[in-house]
Amino acid sequence: MERLQKVIAYAGIASRRKAEQLIVEGKVKVNGQVVKELGTKVSSSDKVEVNGVKLEKEQKVYFLLYKPRATISAVTDDKGRKTVTDIFKNVEQRIFPVGRLDYDTTGLLLLTNDGEFSYQLTHPKFKIDKTYVARVKGIPTIDGLKKLQRGIRLEDGKTAPAKVSMMTADEAAGKAICEITIHEGRNRQVRRMFEAIGTPVVKLKRERFAFLDLGNLAPGEFRQLTQHEVKKLRVLAETGKLD
Ligand code: URA
Questions:
Q1: Ligand 1 centroid to 178 CA: how many Å?
Q2: Which of 2, 5, 99, 122 has a CA that sits 20 to 30 A from residue 69's CA?
Q3: What superfamily would CATH give domain 129-209?
């Protein structure tokens, strides 16, 4: 069962707020009866009409975006900055990002209009691996990298064990490139982890999400996931395994 205003918004008819307004104004019927209660819950078998037009379920869509720098992982931004959904101007479905990448982080970001799919892929209990390449200031010590591998105490608790490796280290320039795989998705987690060992991140890119990578996409480009990939992601989230 879902709240009526959410169902209307998901069908792509209106924003959540506009949907609430339509309900209060008596423009919405459930099974032939006008409903003005905002808390009303409906199921997929209920017939919902808005202004006399039956609601059709929006087709579910799934995209893989190479998120460019300087974009917000949100549908709208109150400061008027560019959002990832601005890149999808020609897509009529109301898609939203699955999780978040920071404004300055680039790389693989999924977008969909499937709320349940998004929940499965972002909830920490489903443990989906995400791999990042971080350019850091300074050279991490072996001890520092081990701390990240074991889990490191941050202000919101200890992180789960991570896979970490140093790909290059430039002693003269005092910088290094590391690869790190985590399955949690806390706010600015990778940046905070490297900060905690004294080598702050200067550039961050998400290279992989589960078994998906960026392939030949350039920043700002996207493609649709295949049905097979969507199914595989669902199975992975539900079972923790790929087959
Ligand atoms: N960790 C971060 O610090 N930033 C991101 O954008 C993603 C993971």
A1: 14
A2: 122
A3: Alpha-L RNA-binding motif (3.30.70.1560)
Tell me the pLDDT tens digit for each residue of 173-220: 999 999 999 999 999 999 999 999 999 999 999 999 999 999 999 999
- Ligand 1 and 101: CB distance under 6 A: yes
**Contact yes or no for 67/105 (Cβ under 8 A):** yes
**pLDDT tens column, 116-129:** 899 999 887 888 99
Tokens of 143: 């001890």
User: What is the amino acid identity at position 33?
Assistant: Q
With the C-alpha atoms ordered 222, 185, 86, 5, is the resulting torsion angle positive or negative? positive
**CATH fold of the domain at 62-124+214-239:** Alpha-Beta Plaits (3.30.70)
CB 194 within 8 A of CB 113: no
